[in-house]
Amino acid sequence: MDPISSPPSAPQPPRPPGIAPASSSGIAEVFIPYKNGPALTAYYLGIFSLICGLFLGIPALILGIKGLKIAKERPEARGAAHAWTGVILGGLTTLVSLIAIAGFAIAMISKR
User: Cα separation of 112 and 110, whole Å?
Assistant: First the structure.
């Protein structure tokens, strides 16, 4: 046996059935997908695109799609919900912004 070894761990009490063991990474990992950066960034860009529209909507849409691919390839990365939020909000704000731009362009042309 190695002279510098860690002491044996104490026995764990039995868990009730249906309760998963506690994760060593903590509860924050469940709510914040820090292993999936594009999904998390898409989430924040999607939220802020509600204010800024087209400028943040397109990156939210692109990063959301990338985050979904990462969440599918590596399930431990998580973040599918954050990625979907970015895709949906980014797509909606991009669509609304493009419709508004087209409407302004048509209004300007019709005034001539």
Answer: 5
